[in-house]
Amino acid sequence: MNVLKKMLTVLFISCLLFTFYKVALARINGEVPTIFGHQLYYVLSGSMEPKLHTGSIILVSKKTPSLKLSKNEIITFKMPYNETILVTHRIHKIIHANGKNFYETKGDANPVKDPWVVTQDQIVSVYSGFTIPYVGYVFKLVNGNGRSYLLLVIVGVLLILMGLKFYKKSYVKV
To answer: What residues form the membrane-spanning segments (predicted)?
Structure first.
């Protein structure tokens, strides 16, 4: 049992380190972090609560040309009035017009639907159903290059300290 616990701890630390590395590398290169074909976004507001809490990390799948969307799916899209801003909301209604689909969206916590209609071209990704609570607050700190290096140093120091603690418990007899 003790060996299994150590193996799980090492696996968890390795996954955590890999995730932070991928996020920091993507941010340094000005890209969206991608892990195993899924992109990571952090939730900035409470508009999708209680499903997606502020400060959470969500995994999304990139949109493909053959993607068929349905009502109540959660999508990430470029805001129609400012395409540099990404919004993650639920499809409230699908409008079929001129052979194309248009999407009315709404945040779960918002009392009314969004004041725009989203086109297929504005959709970036679809929520995969996987959320990591509160970790988004840490990833938000990684928004600048200098902060990326600082975060890597902090994670590295924490891993070294955990390794020393693990070493003392496992190999040093008192």
So the answer is: 149-167
| Both structure tokens of 46 | 């409470």
| Tokens 């502020």, residue located | 54
Q: How far is CA 31 from CA 25, 60, 108, 131, 153, in A?
A: 8, 15, 28, 20, 21
Tokens encoding 108: 């779960």
H-run or E-run covering 101: strand 100-106
Residue 104 pLDDT greater than 70, yes or no: yes
Q: 51 and 134, same structural domain? A: yes
Q: Is the pLDDT of residue 96 over 70?
A: yes
Q: Which residues pair with 86 in a beta bridge?
A: 78
Asked whether the beta carbons of 124 and 62 are under 8 A apart, the reply is yes
Q: Are residues 67 and 134 in the same domain?
A: yes
List the domain range (segments joined by +) for residue 153: 1-29+149-174
pLDDT tens string 114-167: 999 999 899 999 999 888 888 777 666 655 555 556 666 777 777 777 777 766
